Amino acid sequence: MIIGFLRDRLSWILFVLLFLAGMNGLLWLDPGIGVELFSLLYINALLFISFSLFLIWRYNKETAYIRELAKLAESAGTDWIEALPETRFKQDETVNELLTEVASAYSQQLHTIRQSSIVQGDYTAAWVHEAKAPLTAMKLVIDSNRDHPAMRKVEAEWLRVHLLIDQQLYISRLPTLEQDYALEEAELKEMVMPEVRELMSWCLEKNLAVETDELDKAVITDKKWSRFIFRQILSNAVKYSPEGGTITIAARREPEGHLILSIKDEGPGIAPHDLPRIFDKGFTGSTGRIHNAATGLGLYLAKMVADRIGVTLHVSSVPGAGTTLEMAFSLENEFDHIRK
Prior knowledge:
Strand order of the largest sheet: 2-4-5-7-6
Number of helices: 12
Strand content: 5-15%
CATH topology of the largest domain: Heat Shock Protein 90
Distance between the termini: 42 Å
CATH superfamily of the largest domain: Histidine kinase-like ATPase, C-terminal domain
Shape: elongated
Helix content: 55-70%
CATH architecture of the largest domain: 2-Layer Sandwich
Largest sheet: 5 strands, mixed
Protein backbone atom coordinates (compact mmCIF):
# COMPACT_ATOMS: atom_id res chain seq x y z
CA MET A 1 0.00 0.00 0.00
CA ILE A 2 2.91 2.37 0.74
CA ILE A 3 4.38 1.88 -2.73
CA GLY A 4 0.98 2.51 -4.27
CA PHE A 5 0.56 5.69 -2.22
CA LEU A 6 3.99 6.99 -3.29
CA ARG A 7 3.28 6.12 -6.92
CA ASP A 8 0.01 8.05 -6.78
CA ARG A 9 1.84 11.05 -5.25
CA LEU A 10 4.76 10.84 -7.65
CA SER A 11 3.90 14.21 -9.21
CA TRP A 12 4.04 15.84 -5.76
CA ILE A 13 7.41 14.28 -4.98
CA LEU A 14 8.90 15.25 -8.35
CA PHE A 15 7.60 18.81 -7.97
CA VAL A 16 9.22 19.20 -4.54
CA LEU A 17 12.50 17.66 -5.69
CA LEU A 18 12.63 19.85 -8.79
CA PHE A 19 11.73 22.90 -6.71
CA LEU A 20 14.57 22.14 -4.28
CA ALA A 21 16.99 21.56 -7.14
CA GLY A 22 15.98 24.88 -8.71
CA MET A 23 16.33 26.76 -5.44
CA ASN A 24 19.72 25.16 -4.78
CA GLY A 25 20.91 26.16 -8.22
CA LEU A 26 19.67 29.70 -7.74
CA LEU A 27 21.27 30.09 -4.30
CA TRP A 28 24.55 28.53 -5.40
CA LEU A 29 24.97 30.33 -8.71
CA ASP A 30 23.59 33.79 -7.83
CA PRO A 31 26.61 35.87 -6.72
CA GLY A 32 24.31 38.30 -4.95
CA ILE A 33 23.23 35.65 -2.46
CA GLY A 34 25.94 34.49 -0.17
CA VAL A 35 25.14 31.05 1.18
CA GLU A 36 27.71 28.67 2.52
CA LEU A 37 27.65 25.04 1.39
CA PHE A 38 27.01 23.74 4.92
CA SER A 39 24.02 26.08 5.32
CA LEU A 40 22.65 24.99 1.96
CA LEU A 41 22.95 21.32 2.90
CA TYR A 42 21.33 22.03 6.26
CA ILE A 43 18.36 23.77 4.60
CA ASN A 44 17.97 20.87 2.12
CA ALA A 45 18.07 18.26 4.87
CA LEU A 46 15.53 20.22 6.93
CA LEU A 47 13.17 20.58 3.98
CA PHE A 48 13.59 16.94 2.98
CA ILE A 49 12.87 15.69 6.52
CA SER A 50 9.86 18.00 6.79
CA PHE A 51 8.49 16.79 3.47
CA SER A 52 9.04 13.13 4.49
CA LEU A 53 7.16 13.69 7.74
CA PHE A 54 4.41 15.39 5.78
CA LEU A 55 4.13 12.39 3.46
CA ILE A 56 3.96 9.99 6.44
CA TRP A 57 1.20 12.07 8.03
CA ARG A 58 -0.75 12.22 4.77
CA TYR A 59 -0.25 8.49 4.22
CA ASN A 60 -1.76 7.61 7.61
CA LYS A 61 -4.62 10.05 7.11
CA GLU A 62 -5.49 9.29 3.48
CA THR A 63 -5.15 5.51 3.64
CA ALA A 64 -7.04 5.02 6.93
CA TYR A 65 -10.31 4.52 5.01
CA ILE A 66 -8.75 2.06 2.56
CA ARG A 67 -7.17 0.04 5.38
CA GLU A 68 -10.50 -0.19 7.20
CA LEU A 69 -12.20 -1.17 3.95
CA ALA A 70 -9.61 -3.92 3.36
CA LYS A 71 -10.25 -5.32 6.87
CA LEU A 72 -13.98 -5.26 6.21
CA ALA A 73 -13.48 -7.14 2.93
CA GLU A 74 -11.66 -9.95 4.75
CA SER A 75 -14.41 -10.45 7.33
CA ALA A 76 -17.47 -9.10 5.53
CA GLY A 77 -20.80 -10.63 6.44
CA THR A 78 -24.28 -10.00 5.15
CA ASP A 79 -24.47 -6.71 7.08
CA TRP A 80 -21.28 -5.21 5.65
CA ILE A 81 -23.08 -2.04 4.53
CA GLU A 82 -23.66 -1.05 8.18
CA ALA A 83 -19.97 -1.72 8.91
CA LEU A 84 -18.57 0.61 6.23
CA PRO A 85 -15.72 2.72 7.73
CA GLU A 86 -16.10 6.39 8.62
CA THR A 87 -15.19 8.74 5.77
CA ARG A 88 -12.66 11.58 6.04
CA PHE A 89 -12.57 12.91 2.51
CA LYS A 90 -15.05 13.58 -0.26
CA GLN A 91 -13.68 10.73 -2.36
CA ASP A 92 -14.28 8.32 0.53
CA GLU A 93 -17.90 9.50 0.74
CA THR A 94 -18.26 8.86 -3.01
CA VAL A 95 -16.91 5.32 -2.59
CA ASN A 96 -19.33 4.66 0.28
CA GLU A 97 -22.27 5.94 -1.74
CA LEU A 98 -21.25 3.79 -4.72
CA LEU A 99 -20.87 0.67 -2.56
CA THR A 100 -24.26 1.29 -0.96
CA GLU A 101 -25.96 1.72 -4.33
CA VAL A 102 -24.29 -1.40 -5.75
CA ALA A 103 -25.26 -3.43 -2.68
CA SER A 104 -28.85 -2.22 -2.95
CA ALA A 105 -29.02 -3.14 -6.65
CA TYR A 106 -27.40 -6.53 -5.97
CA SER A 107 -29.82 -7.21 -3.10
CA GLN A 108 -32.78 -6.40 -5.33
CA GLN A 109 -31.51 -8.70 -8.09
CA LEU A 110 -30.85 -11.46 -5.56
CA HIS A 111 -34.37 -11.08 -4.16
CA THR A 112 -35.82 -11.35 -7.66
CA ILE A 113 -33.76 -14.46 -8.41
CA ARG A 114 -34.76 -16.05 -5.11
CA GLN A 115 -38.42 -15.37 -5.74
CA SER A 116 -38.10 -16.88 -9.20
CA SER A 117 -36.27 -19.88 -7.76
CA ILE A 118 -38.97 -20.39 -5.12
CA VAL A 119 -41.70 -20.27 -7.76
CA GLN A 120 -39.77 -22.69 -9.96
CA GLY A 121 -39.13 -25.01 -6.99
CA ASP A 122 -42.80 -24.96 -6.01
CA TYR A 123 -43.78 -25.69 -9.60
CA THR A 124 -41.31 -28.57 -9.81
CA ALA A 125 -42.48 -30.05 -6.51
CA ALA A 126 -46.11 -29.76 -7.60
CA TRP A 127 -45.30 -31.38 -10.95
CA VAL A 128 -43.46 -34.24 -9.24
CA HIS A 129 -46.36 -34.90 -6.89
CA GLU A 130 -48.80 -34.81 -9.82
CA ALA A 131 -46.62 -37.20 -11.80
CA LYS A 132 -46.48 -39.62 -8.88
CA ALA A 133 -50.25 -40.19 -9.03
CA PRO A 134 -50.28 -41.96 -12.42
CA LEU A 135 -47.08 -43.79 -11.43
CA THR A 136 -48.85 -45.14 -8.35
CA ALA A 137 -51.76 -46.27 -10.51
CA MET A 138 -49.34 -47.95 -12.93
CA LYS A 139 -47.68 -49.76 -10.03
CA LEU A 140 -51.04 -51.12 -8.87
CA VAL A 141 -51.71 -52.40 -12.39
CA ILE A 142 -48.27 -54.02 -12.51
CA ASP A 143 -48.73 -55.68 -9.11
CA SER A 144 -52.12 -57.08 -10.14
CA ASN A 145 -50.81 -58.51 -13.43
CA ARG A 146 -47.49 -60.04 -12.39
CA ASP A 147 -48.35 -63.31 -14.15
CA HIS A 148 -48.09 -61.56 -17.49
CA PRO A 149 -44.64 -62.27 -19.02
CA ALA A 150 -44.13 -58.64 -20.06
CA MET A 151 -44.74 -57.21 -16.57
CA ARG A 152 -41.14 -57.61 -15.43
CA LYS A 153 -39.91 -55.46 -18.31
CA VAL A 154 -42.69 -52.92 -17.74
CA GLU A 155 -41.88 -52.74 -14.04
CA ALA A 156 -38.20 -52.15 -14.75
CA GLU A 157 -39.04 -49.23 -17.05
CA TRP A 158 -41.56 -47.95 -14.50
CA LEU A 159 -38.80 -48.00 -11.90
CA ARG A 160 -36.49 -45.89 -14.06
CA VAL A 161 -39.20 -43.24 -14.45
CA HIS A 162 -39.96 -43.41 -10.74
CA LEU A 163 -36.29 -42.91 -9.83
CA LEU A 164 -35.93 -39.94 -12.17
CA ILE A 165 -39.02 -38.24 -10.75
CA ASP A 166 -37.93 -38.95 -7.19
CA GLN A 167 -34.48 -37.56 -7.99
CA GLN A 168 -36.09 -34.38 -9.32
CA LEU A 169 -38.04 -34.03 -6.08
CA TYR A 170 -34.84 -34.17 -4.07
CA ILE A 171 -33.19 -31.64 -6.41
CA SER A 172 -36.03 -29.21 -5.67
CA ARG A 173 -35.43 -29.70 -1.93
CA LEU A 174 -31.66 -29.15 -2.08
CA PRO A 175 -31.75 -25.35 -1.54
CA THR A 176 -33.48 -25.90 1.81
CA LEU A 177 -31.48 -28.95 2.88
CA GLU A 178 -30.25 -27.28 6.09
CA GLN A 179 -33.83 -26.62 7.21
CA ASP A 180 -34.77 -30.20 6.31
CA TYR A 181 -31.78 -31.74 8.10
CA ALA A 182 -32.52 -34.00 11.09
CA LEU A 183 -29.89 -36.06 12.91
CA GLU A 184 -30.86 -39.44 14.25
CA GLU A 185 -29.30 -42.77 15.06
CA ALA A 186 -30.06 -45.33 12.37
CA GLU A 187 -28.86 -48.79 11.51
CA LEU A 188 -27.32 -49.17 8.09
CA LYS A 189 -29.74 -52.02 7.40
CA GLU A 190 -32.65 -49.59 7.80
CA MET A 191 -31.19 -47.34 5.12
CA VAL A 192 -29.83 -49.98 2.75
CA MET A 193 -32.52 -52.67 2.53
CA PRO A 194 -35.46 -50.40 1.50
CA GLU A 195 -33.35 -49.07 -1.37
CA VAL A 196 -32.34 -52.58 -2.42
CA ARG A 197 -36.00 -53.63 -2.45
CA GLU A 198 -36.84 -50.47 -4.42
CA LEU A 199 -34.39 -51.50 -7.16
CA MET A 200 -35.15 -55.21 -7.00
CA SER A 201 -37.20 -55.30 -10.24
CA TRP A 202 -34.25 -53.74 -12.09
CA CYS A 203 -31.90 -56.30 -10.51
CA LEU A 204 -34.22 -59.16 -11.49
CA GLU A 205 -34.35 -57.88 -15.06
CA LYS A 206 -30.53 -58.08 -15.22
CA ASN A 207 -30.38 -61.24 -13.08
CA LEU A 208 -28.19 -59.46 -10.52
CA ALA A 209 -27.43 -60.80 -7.06
CA VAL A 210 -27.13 -58.39 -4.14
CA GLU A 211 -25.03 -59.57 -1.20
CA THR A 212 -24.93 -57.73 2.14
CA ASP A 213 -22.59 -58.06 5.10
CA GLU A 214 -22.22 -56.42 8.55
CA LEU A 215 -25.12 -53.99 8.10
CA ASP A 216 -26.23 -54.19 11.74
CA LYS A 217 -24.03 -51.22 12.66
CA ALA A 218 -25.54 -47.85 13.60
CA VAL A 219 -24.55 -44.35 12.55
CA ILE A 220 -25.69 -40.85 13.44
CA THR A 221 -26.80 -39.06 10.29
CA ASP A 222 -29.80 -37.78 8.39
CA LYS A 223 -31.53 -40.99 7.37
CA LYS A 224 -33.53 -39.57 4.45
CA TRP A 225 -30.62 -37.77 2.76
CA SER A 226 -28.22 -40.64 3.42
CA ARG A 227 -30.69 -42.96 1.68
CA PHE A 228 -30.74 -40.54 -1.24
CA ILE A 229 -26.93 -40.72 -1.53
CA PHE A 230 -26.98 -44.51 -1.29
CA ARG A 231 -29.73 -44.71 -3.93
CA GLN A 232 -27.64 -42.76 -6.45
CA ILE A 233 -24.64 -45.01 -5.83
CA LEU A 234 -26.66 -48.24 -5.95
CA SER A 235 -28.46 -47.11 -9.13
CA ASN A 236 -25.07 -46.61 -10.78
CA ALA A 237 -23.94 -50.03 -9.61
CA VAL A 238 -27.04 -51.69 -11.08
CA LYS A 239 -26.82 -49.67 -14.29
CA TYR A 240 -23.24 -50.69 -15.05
CA SER A 241 -23.28 -54.24 -13.68
CA PRO A 242 -23.17 -56.99 -16.32
CA GLU A 243 -25.96 -59.54 -16.72
CA GLY A 244 -25.74 -62.12 -13.94
CA GLY A 245 -23.29 -60.03 -11.91
CA THR A 246 -23.10 -59.47 -8.15
CA ILE A 247 -23.31 -56.26 -6.15
CA THR A 248 -21.73 -56.46 -2.70
CA ILE A 249 -22.81 -54.08 0.06
CA ALA A 250 -20.75 -54.26 3.24
CA ALA A 251 -19.86 -52.16 6.27
CA ARG A 252 -16.74 -51.95 8.41
CA ARG A 253 -15.45 -49.83 11.27
CA GLU A 254 -12.14 -48.03 10.71
CA PRO A 255 -9.62 -47.78 13.60
CA GLU A 256 -9.95 -43.98 13.69
CA GLY A 257 -13.70 -44.29 14.22
CA HIS A 258 -15.28 -43.85 10.81
CA LEU A 259 -17.90 -46.33 9.70
CA ILE A 260 -17.52 -47.22 6.03
CA LEU A 261 -20.38 -48.44 3.85
CA SER A 262 -19.05 -49.85 0.59
CA ILE A 263 -20.93 -50.70 -2.61
CA LYS A 264 -18.96 -52.87 -5.02
CA ASP A 265 -20.07 -53.90 -8.50
CA GLU A 266 -18.56 -56.10 -11.21
CA GLY A 267 -19.00 -53.61 -14.01
CA PRO A 268 -16.47 -52.37 -16.57
CA GLY A 269 -14.82 -50.08 -14.04
CA ILE A 270 -13.68 -46.50 -14.47
CA ALA A 271 -10.65 -45.40 -16.43
CA PRO A 272 -7.92 -43.85 -14.24
CA HIS A 273 -8.12 -40.53 -16.11
CA ASP A 274 -11.87 -40.38 -15.41
CA LEU A 275 -11.69 -41.04 -11.65
CA PRO A 276 -10.93 -37.43 -10.54
CA ARG A 277 -13.95 -36.14 -12.47
CA ILE A 278 -16.71 -38.62 -11.68
CA PHE A 279 -18.37 -36.22 -9.21
CA ASP A 280 -18.40 -33.34 -11.69
CA LYS A 281 -21.78 -32.17 -12.93
CA GLY A 282 -22.68 -33.65 -16.32
CA PHE A 283 -19.56 -35.84 -16.50
CA THR A 284 -20.36 -39.29 -17.90
CA GLY A 285 -16.90 -40.62 -18.69
CA SER A 286 -15.94 -43.18 -21.29
CA THR A 287 -18.04 -45.91 -19.61
CA GLY A 288 -21.15 -43.74 -19.60
CA ARG A 289 -20.72 -42.89 -23.27
CA ILE A 290 -20.32 -46.54 -24.19
CA HIS A 291 -23.49 -47.55 -22.34
CA ASN A 292 -25.34 -44.41 -23.46
CA ALA A 293 -27.29 -44.43 -20.19
CA ALA A 294 -25.53 -41.87 -18.00
CA THR A 295 -26.84 -38.40 -17.23
CA GLY A 296 -23.86 -37.21 -15.19
CA LEU A 297 -26.17 -36.12 -12.35
CA GLY A 298 -26.39 -39.07 -9.95
CA LEU A 299 -22.90 -38.96 -8.42
CA TYR A 300 -22.79 -35.17 -8.68
CA LEU A 301 -25.93 -34.90 -6.54
CA ALA A 302 -24.66 -37.59 -4.17
CA LYS A 303 -21.41 -35.67 -3.63
CA MET A 304 -23.22 -32.36 -3.17
CA VAL A 305 -25.51 -33.80 -0.49
CA ALA A 306 -22.70 -35.78 1.14
CA ASP A 307 -20.56 -32.68 1.58
CA ARG A 308 -23.44 -30.86 3.24
CA ILE A 309 -24.40 -33.59 5.71
CA GLY A 310 -20.90 -34.67 6.72
CA VAL A 311 -20.54 -37.89 4.70
CA THR A 312 -17.31 -38.50 2.77
CA LEU A 313 -17.39 -40.34 -0.58
CA HIS A 314 -14.42 -42.26 -1.95
CA VAL A 315 -14.21 -44.27 -5.15
CA SER A 316 -11.72 -46.88 -6.31
CA SER A 317 -11.85 -48.80 -9.55
CA VAL A 318 -9.89 -51.15 -11.76
CA PRO A 319 -10.87 -51.10 -15.45
CA GLY A 320 -12.52 -54.40 -16.28
CA ALA A 321 -12.74 -55.46 -12.62
CA GLY A 322 -15.53 -53.31 -11.20
CA THR A 323 -15.89 -50.24 -9.02
CA THR A 324 -16.12 -49.74 -5.28
CA LEU A 325 -17.69 -46.59 -3.88
CA GLU A 326 -17.52 -45.95 -0.15
CA MET A 327 -19.60 -43.74 2.14
CA ALA A 328 -17.69 -42.74 5.29
CA PHE A 329 -19.79 -41.70 8.30
CA SER A 330 -18.10 -39.83 11.14
CA LEU A 331 -18.80 -40.71 14.74
CA GLU A 332 -19.02 -36.98 15.44
CA ASN A 333 -21.01 -35.48 12.63
CA GLU A 334 -20.04 -31.91 11.75
CA PHE A 335 -23.61 -30.78 12.30
CA ASP A 336 -23.42 -31.99 15.91
CA HIS A 337 -21.01 -29.16 16.72
CA ILE A 338 -23.33 -26.60 15.14
CA ARG A 339 -26.33 -27.85 17.09
CA LYS A 340 -24.55 -27.87 20.48
